[in-house]
């Protein structure tokens, strides 16, 4: 896989010369391939002219996922760069291997360096060997890691001479085993904490992509390789940092945070993060709270909760869902690993003794609401257990939530105006709205004295008829005013609906239609939040105007970005 490092190499250069101090892994079987495989007859003669004119044979420096074919002396001369190349990105491609690092200059803290300034300068270069096919974002992440390590080593050298001590121990090991580099590397691994840190760094990058180190038992290094950290549920797909940033811009206050690990585990994680606000948020965490409620309970600003959520999502510690509630409808994810030998089956049984994952999840083979599974006559403990089952399956990306989207289709082929209509609202002195569309603005229809005397606007902004027995002409004038900007053929279809006789319903329908909520891009929960409406209001409106409103179920694109295939859409 192009994400994992092939090797981590430590090179130093000072007044005494350059040396490869340590590399991991170091037990490498070199590739010794016959350069001229076409020469099968040992008695044939090689023509010098043909050898000079023939193209050079391609040689690979990757053997079983690790770096090979390059000696320590070659690597030392490659990465002991000049001073001009220090403190900036260094990148070099050799055959099918790409090397990336951030060479760092150190001021050594020794008595000799105090006497001679030139001898007190050392170049430290921590190089990551990657596959040449690694993406630019992967290369950028490893360069960032090399830069962080250089900053930490520079600080520790200035504080206590840590690098000088470690390099001297490494040089002594090489002097004792001049003819056996592998033995020298093993001694360094046993005696030098820097060598052990490099080993753990390599192993963490290859396994989880999450690095937690304490260099010299003093400075904590925390690093996340998102391309690796998010692969545990994405099945080999690469998640780029830009994809995660794009996903997080879709966060809304009505979304919720779903932790992928127990809160106790994440509190230990926050010790490395040193963020007291993150601990405050975790103490108030619940997957049944939206981010706005979580911010209020944690006494934090909503923008800061967004930042903390983005931090946890980037580190693959959490995902984003819609708050778990009774009206949510779930269905089995198409990418759910539910085969017979799935490890999740045993994991589910250990978490919920007496339950089987297949039996629990089969009820969601078709879209099913949580409310339909909750029986008010059942014990509250059983209902709580069902909610915990849902949360567990959401954590493991086995379920996805479906939302209801609305499409305004007054005609057989949809709306008559194919272009997106943009409406502007201007209030007159009498509270009558004048609407303009993308086509020429129609003339305003003034209400007659008899009409204005029987119509008034309430505190809620909805016009009411003072006299219930108002004439049909007055009602028709008001209906035409509400749908003034709609094309004639659409108005004729809408007027056939009995609900248009109720001013409140017609006004709400026209308002939501003008704001673009009926274009199939907003689901019910989003409309409820943005317009401060109850679910019953929307469902009744959909039922009354079902002749021109079409509903369908789909996953929220904002939340889908955090699911198994969302970041790839």
UniProtKB/TrEMBL annotation:
Residues 489-550 form the GATOR1 complex protein NPRL3 C-terminal HTH domain. Pfam families: HTH_NPRL3, NPR3. Belongs to the NPR3 family. InterPro entries: HTH_NPRL3, Npr3. It comes from the Eukaryota. GO terms for biological process: cellular response to amino acid starvation. Keywords: Lysosome, Signal. It is found in: Lysosome. This is GATOR complex protein NPRL3. GO terms for cellular component: GATOR1 complex; lysosome. Its main location: other. As a component of the GATOR1 complex functions as an inhibitor of the amino acid-sensing branch of the TORC1 pathway.
